[in-house]
């Protein structure tokens, strides 16, 4: 699968990454190579193999609905870049 | 041109669990900012989400109540987008394999006429946090207490054709979720939220038109008004020969309009993929059957039973079963008297009036079903008349006394003594010779004048049946 410059720019935007214009072509080539390599998997014979959804061979890992004391704002906000009392502060998000 | 609106609704209902869907933080509303947070719900590296079993049971319950097929195996996916209310950068949801599909519920579109609205799917997901925008500052505040609170999203088929049908569907779904006690239904606090997808097509056309999605519909009234507005807006655009733009629009309840939410359009590539931290969820027959065994009577079943058991009209039964609490209030009251219609009338009249004027919920009403039942007993056995019952009812609002003792204290016992009333009737007829003459000359309307005079004389305590008979005889 061939990845274009436009694809790279779009993926970068979705991931909120800034990509140096000079590197876009390089990334397009690299991502294309990775995808082409993965395409090789299509050649493998998987007839008779069962569909797998995860690496863990178990289902239904659950907990009971019992409250645990939360560590609260002091732990949650300890690495916050900016805070005001017990709120995170972020740049204004709506007009 | 004549257009047909095509409407589908997405409801997000907060499940009434004690803890969040993937961690043990409390779901209690109104806690101080970020008090109910931990490394799991704030998306710290290296933590593992563990599914809340109760949330699954509640989702199964919702699925059964809406006639859905429950998936034996369902899975959780990551829905990726950036927003400050979503600390992980993705929301855990169910995309490819939801817990339930292919349901329906029926709504009444006019008296006695039902319509089936299909339910596409129900899936489980976690809620996002809350943003507080400071009006005069260039910043927003983030509170993550709501992050990770369990939700079910219930998606309808595009079967709805009018604002009224949309409201009827929502009210029905709201009542059902409250009946089965999985959601408190509080729309102001956001426990029951609705988005609407709306498009128009020329009448008779099969193909759907371009749709818009409406957000911020936080009351039944707003849902109806917003859809009404959006239908008119789209019809206007189409009549001008222009195209409706597919976009998300926000309802502005202050101005009664919908506004485009610019800037969100290109965020709709969510790149869903299976969440590797969560294993498949398997729901077996045993689990489904144990939830079924625990199901309460649903609104439609209760309505049919009320019609049969209490000989109520379709309309009365529908009103009285609109919430579980109201239905219970009616049954508790009606238990004490033989005329069930009397209980229905009193509850749908004075009681509901009181609920409205006091802004109260029926369960916290100052007049309990027990004391209303007792009051209606006194009315039914002729201790008091309807007029006296009304006076006592009003007193009950601010009194701890029983209806019987209030009747005694206020001297409201009905006068049913034949000879005593006969004297009053004679007295009134004598005192009003002109009216008596007119009546006898054919002005029969004056009958109510005499009734009124007698009631006044007896301070409203006369048995109306007896004085009617007496008057008829004497006139």
From TrEMBL, chain A:
Protein name according to UniProt: Aspartyl/glutamyl-tRNA(Asn/Gln) amidotransferase subunit C
Reactions this protein catalyses: L-aspartyl-tRNA(Asn) + L-glutamine + ATP + H2O = L-asparaginyl-tRNA(Asn) + L-glutamate + ADP + phosphate + 2 H(+); L-glutamyl-tRNA(Gln) + L-glutamine + ATP + H2O = L-glutaminyl-tRNA(Gln) + L-glutamate + ADP + phosphate + H(+)
NCBIfam families for this protein: gatC (TIGR00135)
Key words of the record: ATP-binding, Ligase, Nucleotide-binding, Protein biosynthesis, Transferase
HAMAP family: GatC
EC number(s) given by UniProt: 6.3.5.-
GO biological process terms on file: glutaminyl-tRNAGln biosynthesis via transamidation; regulation of translational fidelity; translation
A Pfam family matched in the record: GatC
Family membership: Belongs to the GatC family.
Purpose: Allows the formation of correctly charged Asn-tRNA(Asn) or Gln-tRNA(Gln) through the transamidation of misacylated Asp-tRNA(Asn) or Glu-tRNA(Gln) in organisms which lack either or both of asparaginyl-tRNA or glutaminyl-tRNA synthetases. The reaction takes place in the presence of glutamine and ATP through an activated phospho-Asp-tRNA(Asn) or phospho-Glu-tRNA(Gln).
Known partners and oligomeric status: Heterotrimer of A, B and C subunits.
Highest taxon of source: Bacteria
Alphabetized GO MF terms: asparaginyl-tRNA synthase (glutamine-hydrolyzing) activity; ATP binding; glutaminyl-tRNA synthase (glutamine-hydrolyzing) activity; transferase activity
Keyword Disulfide bond assigned: no
Key word Protein biosynthesis present: yes
Automatic annotation (TrEMBL), chain B:
Claim: Amino-acid biosynthesis is one of the keywords in the record: no
Ranges where the Asn/Gln amidotransferase domain occurs: 328-475
A GO term, aspect molecular function: asparaginyl-tRNA synthase (glutamine-hydrolyzing) activity
Catalytic activity, as annotated: L-aspartyl-tRNA(Asn) + L-glutamine + ATP + H2O = L-asparaginyl-tRNA(Asn) + L-glutamate + ADP + phosphate + 2 H(+); L-glutamyl-tRNA(Gln) + L-glutamine + ATP + H2O = L-glutaminyl-tRNA(Gln) + L-glutamate + ADP + phosphate + H(+)
Cited PROSITE patterns: GATB
Enzyme Commission numbers on file: 6.3.5.-
Keyword Glycosyltransferase attached: no
Subunit (UniProt): Heterotrimer of A, B and C subunits.
Record-linked PANTHER family: GLUTAMYL-TRNA GLN AMIDOTRANSFERASE SUBUNIT B MITOCHONDRIAL AND PROKARYOTIC PET112-RELATED, GLUTAMYL-TRNA(GLN) AMIDOTRANSFERASE SUBUNIT B, MITOCHONDRIAL
Xref: HAMAP family: GatB (MF_00121)
Recorded family membership: Belongs to the GatB/GatE family. GatB subfamily.
Function of the molecule: Allows the formation of correctly charged Asn-tRNA(Asn) or Gln-tRNA(Gln) through the transamidation of misacylated Asp-tRNA(Asn) or Glu-tRNA(Gln) in organisms which lack either or both of asparaginyl-tRNA or glutaminyl-tRNA synthetases. The reaction takes place in the presence of glutamine and ATP through an activated phospho-Asp-tRNA(Asn) or phospho-Glu-tRNA(Gln).
Protein name: Aspartyl/glutamyl-tRNA(Asn/Gln) amidotransferase subunit B
Gene: gatB
